[in-house]
Amino acid sequence: MEALLRGTLAADESGCVHAKTATDPVGLVWPLGYTVQGDAESFEVLDADKNVVARSGSPLAIGGGGVGGVVQDNWTERDCAKDRIWLIGNISEQE
Fold this sequence. Notes:
- There is one protein chain.
- Helix content is 0%, strand content 48%.
- By secondary structure, the protein is an all-beta fold.
- The protein has a single domain (3-93), classed as CATH 2.40.50.
- It has a 5-stranded mixed β-barrel with strand order 1-2-3-8-7. Strands 4-5-6 form a 3-stranded antiparallel β-sheet, with no helix packed on it.
- The chain is globular and about 30 Å long.
């Protein structure tokens, strides 16, 4: 969980939030309690304390690690998981 992924948050036509990278979109698995508010065009990600931690279109540095295509039964938004999945450890907006 010490790797770094750089990209911007975007939503696909199904409303699934992912990281848009230089190559392919990466599905994101958020920590327990994180939520998304807004719509596919403009949204914010809130942590368990309801603090905004990321916004759509903002450049991000996302700490964590990749898990290939393995999807656990207890993950939320399992239908949003793509070929590349990233477990988020921490997230920060880049300037």
